Design the sequence.
């Protein structure tokens, strides 16, 4: 491929609407073009990268005995009604009516479609286990697309669905699949992706893992224990707290605290530490806007996912006005309206002295003792884990919090979908059973963007050889020099004949402009053919990651380039774990 | 792949809702499963076939210097408003609103998206020509999906868009593309697909071709001249008629024809041949239901596409009631309401004596002479070509009419989209110009189904080696016999190690059931390993198309199988035309 023919603009200026580097570089390098909010077209370089990622995924799925199939993008609403998700999923699920007024949806995930495909086939235990997967377009009408291909509305996803006759069989397969995912990331050149325990969200099921690429621009917070290896998404991380009483038991006393509404102000005014404050965090249920108040230790934050899971209801931060059953800034458990659902975080358990709101404008209580002053207190874990906090696995004060991009997830679904959609098989004893499912997803474009995010410099992405759009980029400086041009042309043809994917720049432009374009295209091996080099009977071979920089005799150019390619490939391969 | 693990049901009974053979066989063979009307999931065999077709297409597009890109499935309605198609396309275009009430559509074709992708990039003549293509999911809300994958609502399509600075350049490229299409069909094992002149329909532009697989179940009528090679879709075929006067000029005379409304009845009653009848065919414009009457010679049929193109308006067959401006069964050009648009087909030109309706219940005219009795008669070609009719190219009475499935189409679009969407480039003289476009489509699934339609027997599809899901199908009869099983296992492993795609059946089932499944799966090379064969020190090698049937010494089994594969491949390759 000649750079002069490559469709797509490349330019220097960082687009003002790009917050993250990978987004800016993929726009600047002619990889992607926005078509609508969170919807992109891919130019050839991005298409080639995603195709290579898809092929790696395909090979690893096939190694897991996966069978590639294809589900529709447009699905009948009735199928989603079978699982109950037609109603339960929010407007992220696009619903529309076709010309016959039949309700249709755009597939955002394909559990229903996978059950529909196999429920007649898999009617006997002898057909199990099996796994089917597809690599297909998905649409999710995300409220806040961001960061280029990292959070989009339309994307290509590999989604796999496995079916089993026992939980043990699922767990065994799940472990193989987890390893296959580690292989996929390593083969794609990002072995540093880690698996973390996750919340299963709308997918249902109990056990699930997310694969996280750690980077400061990630949307997710990851809780990691460097001591024992515990890793979980903040959403799913247990919060273990040590509650200590620094203040003695006292009487419940109403105090005048005019205009003092925050923990910081209260701490200062009353000279009571935040660990003795019962902070109120107020939500409303999405369903009916009814109020939920969560009391939590003053120094901690609430974890919305845990609250949602505990309530079995989605919630949003409350909008408090004069008609609300709470007094903003002065909420406490004593005398709170009975209309309000109250949760107590475990961080308040056993604390003898607390400060809290008095449910009256400008008043707080001191000396609150939950055991004494409030009936029926049940404590639940609805707090966010904190940096330096206690590891729920090894018990040390060792937790660290990092940011990550979720680049894959796997779920043990159980029988949620097979039960709802009445898929059964006959077991060896002749009894009817519901199969047990697992599902396994990877967003292809997001993985490509995440690689660019963790592997770039200020000049452009540094693509790993295994997913690079081309392996070699030949820069022919002074294409007006017949000897130089002739040599570069011949090298281009020779490498192509050897099956190397080559990008060839023989435009009559300044070397600086040529190298800028090469940097933006991020091809791993760069070869410079110039009058000066040829005078010395050499070509210059460098790698985009700067690990190699050499001059090879010009007669051996192709062979030396092949060696560098092989070396880069070996470096990637060395980090790929064995499959199990 | 072992047949025992292959997900999908295979069965004997022809499903009652399958009208065409390929549809029935693809359901019976576990290739596809309906999810909604005109929407299918693909099982692994179909996915493998379509992937191979896609790869053939990809290679041919790359050979045309095409650059693979990816457009979104979901597009903003505003983009389709730029071209005017948001309004002009009927409900085949799915429109919906996203969560922010922005109007969106499901891409049914991507001319707008292709212009959007390149209009900033391709701002100078030096960037031209270029071609971009994608292989992607499309959705068209067809009113009448039918015949399995042949007419569906959701499908995978390769769509390519080329951009040029002159009509000559487009025409040259168009010719190369036409040849590439011939190569694609030949490589897919169906070299008998023919290119025919086509009507451009909603795509706009003037010159276009369709690629037709001739089969009686085709939806399209194709006009072919075996003498000179003229080939056109009926929609676009010129109708050449020789008008002769068998009856002399006569006076215009009103005759009483009670209850006689059809040409047949009139011919009988008046003893006037149909070639002297002016048949009235009545339409209404979709836009405003206004009436259009087409007069045509009694023995000919009207061509709706030509009428639509002439009027520049879509029409439908009229619904005539008491308030209509015409009298059903008695319509004629003399005294017809002025509210009605009247067209005269060329088949009436120069005929001195015609019978027509008198625009009065139960009355006709005889002796109508259009030149004499009607003012301002202009004749247009709105007739269907007929079997045995005159070839518009060589002039012989040689036309034949065949049925065909459209398996591809290519269009010279001109500047329709670039003008509407204001895409310009600066030419060598510094002037601003609109680029000239071509577009080129192939439906992947339809091609797969069409191959099955023209290449099957009553037992199943006969897949050409180039697109077959697997190349070899090993049937191990008596898997309970350790020697037989051992040999078959080893052969399976040996062929796989050689890179052959093998389907392996070692189930403990009757040979008849095993062969039925093999027939349905349609794999080109079948190898039977049985106690009887091994006793004779041989394996049986046959081809699904019955062209090969031999016994090979068991030690040479793999080598002999490879030979048969090579022979089948060579047969396909021999029919592939050179590219230009």
Sequence:
């Amino acid at each position: 491929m000649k750079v002069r023919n490559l469709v797509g603009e490349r330019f220097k200026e960082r687009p003002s609407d790009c917050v993250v580097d990978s987004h800016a570089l993929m726009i600047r390098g002619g990889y992607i073009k926005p078509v609508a909010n969170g919807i992109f077209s891919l130019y050839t370089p991005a298409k080639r990268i995603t195709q290579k990622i898809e092929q790696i995924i395909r090979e690893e799925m096939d190694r897991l005995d996966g069978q590639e199939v294809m589900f529709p993008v447009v699905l009948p609403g009735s199928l989603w009604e079978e699982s109950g998700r037609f109603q339960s999923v929010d407007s992220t699920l696009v619903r529309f009516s076709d010309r016959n007024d039949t309700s249709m949806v755009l597939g955002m995930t394909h559990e229903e479609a996978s059950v529909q495909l196999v429920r007649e086939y898999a009617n006997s235990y002898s057909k199990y286990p099996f796994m089917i997967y597809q690599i297909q377009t998905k649409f999710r009408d995300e409220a806040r697309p961001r960061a280029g291909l990292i959070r989009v509305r339309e994307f290509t996803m590999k989604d796999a669905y496995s079916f089993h006759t026992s939980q043990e069989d699922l767990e065994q397969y799940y472990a193989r699949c987890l390893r296959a995912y580690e292989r996929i990331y390593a083969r794609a050149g990002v072995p540093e992706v880690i698996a973390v325990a996750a919340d299963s969200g709308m997918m249902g099921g109990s056990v699930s893992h997310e694969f996280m690429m750690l980077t400061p621009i990630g949307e997710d917070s990851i809780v990691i224990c460097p001591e024992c290896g515990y890793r979980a998404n903040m959403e799913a991380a247990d919060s273990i707290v040590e509650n200590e009483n620094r203040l003695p038991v006292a009487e419940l006393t109403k105090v005048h605290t005019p205009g003092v509404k925050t923990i910081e102000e209260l701490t200062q005014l009353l000279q009571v530490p935040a660990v003795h404050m019962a902070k109120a965090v107020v939500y409303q249920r999405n369903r009916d806007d009814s109020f939920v108040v969560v009391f939590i230790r003053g120094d901690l934050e609430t974890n919305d996912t845990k609250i949602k899971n505990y309530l079995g209801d989605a919630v949003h931060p409350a909008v408090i006005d004069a008609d609300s059953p709470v007094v903003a800034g002065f909420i406490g458990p004593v005398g709170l309206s009975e209309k309000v659902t109250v949760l107590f975080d475990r961080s308040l358990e056993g604390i003898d002295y607390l400060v809290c709101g008095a449910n009256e404008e400008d008043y707080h209580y001191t000396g609150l003792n939950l055991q004494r002053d409030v009936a029926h207190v049940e404590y639940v874990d609805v707090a966010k884990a904190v940096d330096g906090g206690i590891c729920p696995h090894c018990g040390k004060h060792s937790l660290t919090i990092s940011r990550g991009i979720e680049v894959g997830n796997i779920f043990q679904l159980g029988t949620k979908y097979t039960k709802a959609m009445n898929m059964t098989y006959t077991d060896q004893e002749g009894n009817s059973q519901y199969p047990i499912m697992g599902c396994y997803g990877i967003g292809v474009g997001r993985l490509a963007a995440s690689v660019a995010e963790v592997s770039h410099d200020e000049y452009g992405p540094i693509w790993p050889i295994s997913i690079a759009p081309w392996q070699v980029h030949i820069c022919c400086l002074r294409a007006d020099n017949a000897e130089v041009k002739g040599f570069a042309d011949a090298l281009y043809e020779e490498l192509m004949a050897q099956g190397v994917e080559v990008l060839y720049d023989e435009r009559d432009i300044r070397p600086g402009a040529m190298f800028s374009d090469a940097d933006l295209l991020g091809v791993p091996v760069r070869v410079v053919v110039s009058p000066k080099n040829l005078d010395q009977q050499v070509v210059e071979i460098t790698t985009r990651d700067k690990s190699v920089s050499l001059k090879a005799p010009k007669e051996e150019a192709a062979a030396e380039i092949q060696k560098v390619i092989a070396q880069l490939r070996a470096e990637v391969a060395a980090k790929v774990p064995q499959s199990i």
Remarks:
- The first strand of chain B starts at residue 32 and ends at 36.
- Chain B has three domains: 18-221+402-454, 253-380, 470-574.
- The mean pLDDT of chain B is 93.
- The domain at 470-574 of chain B is CATH 3.40.50.800 (Rossmann fold).
